[in-house]
């Protein structure tokens, strides 16, 4: 038979699954249910598998310290308080630790702001104690179990967050694509709730105190993390939507400024050159009077002529002679299209290396080989992919390129030149199909490793006005 757990009317406890290492609780045998202070209470998930996200001020005297938690919903019930008021509350189950004992308890969520105790421990929680003898409560004394300290919260900002279910939004116009499907699958495997949102159907309420993103006639809820999959054709509007989620306070895997910078091919090459990152020699001019000089800067043909707004290898032309280059450039100018010219790296032999960088690390790499008769190695242009072992220099170059743009997820395309790796492009919405199938790695899962690391459970910020409370 285990030793009886003795409790006073006031005790320290911990709720480890919620990321709450120290709380003061009032032990009240006169109350049937237990209650935990919570604000911004947001239910989410599918019917029959509901979850709830909420914030808590673990230290009553410090409302600026906000910790965000999530848990499975076990019930929703009416609770009548000691003053006779009835409130409908969400009920969760979570382990409680007191001294060296830990057991699961059901807790209702209620806003206890202004109360001395942000947790109330009632009879049902004591009756759930798994040992033979129910805890003995001595109402005339306090702290019969070891004392904890609120000091544990001081260092939490720099610690890895407590693992919890996150509400994740994927901004995409292609919910059925391989990349999006894999991100949904990987997130749900980890018990996150992942929702696909059509970027172009989002609209924004922009004001100083309460920025919102609206969809289907109502404001979207708060998302712990946002994964932007912004197509090149909607970069301007897509990044505006991403900026709005940043203003709301969600963790965004690739921020709007990073996407914008990487999408502007001219600016991207200027940034790479500024930071001393190897790249093919590149030139740009506006006036048709400078066409000949522009071509001359590239040296002997062939040279590449590339539209500034292009993706997946489209809008990229190989000019075998100076005359051919002049013709292509003239055609682009007639279309009023912006373009740049670039050195053709012959020794690459129609091959490039795609490095997938997540959270500042190359997690997978593949070699893409152009189809016969084609110089572009993009998979969308018929290229093939195989797993590739990259050199230390190639790894460092890929990491540095992603870091230069501040991208949490990036596809960095490299050419193997005689003078070292050359960055062709840094892609802020890289496809996952080729890299996962060629490398055999769970890249989508590695993306969630980064999200879980950065979508911190503790934040210091103002409480958002108008938040859902029930």
UniProtKB/TrEMBL annotation:
- ATP-grasp domain ranges (all copies): 269-452
Q: Which GO terms describe its biological process?
A: SOS response; translation
- Mind telling me which InterPro entries this protein's record contains? Asp_endopeptidase, ATP-grasp, ATP-grasp_RimK-type, ATP_grasp_subdomain_1, Peptidase_aspartic_dom_sf, Rimk_N, Rp_bS6_RimK/Lys_biosynth_LsyX
Gene3D superfamilies in the cross-refs: 3.40.50.20, Acid Proteases, ATP-grasp fold, A domain, ATP-grasp fold, B domain
Keyword terms, alphabetized: ATP-binding, Ligase, Magnesium, Manganese, Metal-binding, Nucleotide-binding, Protein biosynthesis, Ribonucleoprotein, Ribosomal protein
Q: Does the keyword Nucleotide-binding apply?
A: yes
Gene Ontology CC, one term = cytoplasm
A Pfam family of this chain: RimK
One annotated GO molecular function is: ribosomal S6-glutamic acid ligase activity
Q: Which family does it belong to?
A: In the C-terminal section; belongs to the RimK family.
Q: What is this protein called?
A: Probable alpha-L-glutamate ligase
What is the species of this protein?
Answer: Parvularcula dongshanensis
């Amino acid at each position: 038979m285990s030793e009886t757990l003795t409790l006073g009317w006031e005790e320290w406890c911990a709720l480890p699954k919620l990321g709450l290492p120290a709380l003061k609780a009032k032990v009240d045998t006169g109350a049937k249910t237990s209650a935990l202070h919570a604000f911004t209470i947001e239910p989410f998930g599918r019917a029959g598998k509901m979850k709830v996200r909420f914030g808590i001020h673990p230290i009553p005297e410090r409302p600026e310290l906000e910790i965000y938690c999530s848990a499975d919903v076990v019930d929703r019930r009416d609770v009548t308080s000691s003053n006779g008021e009835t409130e409908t509350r969400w009920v969760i189950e979570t382990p409680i630790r007191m001294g060296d004992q830990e057991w699961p308890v059901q807790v209702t969520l209620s806003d206890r702001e202004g109360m001395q105790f942000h947790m109330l421990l009632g009879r049902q929680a004591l009756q759930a104690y798994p040992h033979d003898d129910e805890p003995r409560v001595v109402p005339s004394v306090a702290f019969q179990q070891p004392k904890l300290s609120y000091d544990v919260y001081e260092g939490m900002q720099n610690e890895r967050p407590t693992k919890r279910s996150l509400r994740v939004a994927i901004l995409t116009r292609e919910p059925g694509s391989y990349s999006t499907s894999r991100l949904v699958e990987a997130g749900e495997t980890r018990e996150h709730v992942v929702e696909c949102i059509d970027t172009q159907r989002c609209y924004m309420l922009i004001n100083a105190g309460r920025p919102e993103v609206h969809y289907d006639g109502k404001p979207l809820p708060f998302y712990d993390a946002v994964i932007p999959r912004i197509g090149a054709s909607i970069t301007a509007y897509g990044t505006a939507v991403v900026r709005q989620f940043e203003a709301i306070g969600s963790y965004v895997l690739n921020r709007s400024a990073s996407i914008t910078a990487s999408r502007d091919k001219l600016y991207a090459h200027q940034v790479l050159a500024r930071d001393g990152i190897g790249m093919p020699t590149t030139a740009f001019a506006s006036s048709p009077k400078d066409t000949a000089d522009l071509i001359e800067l590239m040296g002997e043909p062939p040279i590449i002529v590339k539209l500034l707004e292009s993706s997946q290898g489209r809008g990229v032309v190989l000019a075998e002679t100076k005359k051919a280059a002049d013709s292509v450039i003239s055609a682009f100018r007639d279309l009023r299209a912006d373009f740049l010219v670039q050195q053709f790296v012959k020794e690459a032999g129609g091959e490039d290396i795609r490095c997938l960088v997540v959270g500042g690390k190359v997690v997978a790499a593949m070699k893409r080989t152009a189809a016969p008769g084609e110089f572009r190695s993009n998979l969308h242009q018929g290229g093939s992919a195989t797993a590739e072992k990259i050199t230390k220099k190639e790894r460092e170059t890929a990491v540095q390129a992603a870091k230069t743009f501040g991208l949490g997820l990036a596809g960095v395309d490299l050419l193997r030149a005689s003078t070292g790796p050359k960055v062709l492009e840094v892609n802020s919405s890289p496809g996952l199909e080729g890299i996962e199938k060629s490398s055999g790695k769970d890249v989508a899962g590695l993306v969630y490793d980064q999200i879980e690391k950065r979508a911190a459970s503790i934040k210091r910020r103002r409480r958002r006005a108008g938040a859902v409370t029930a």
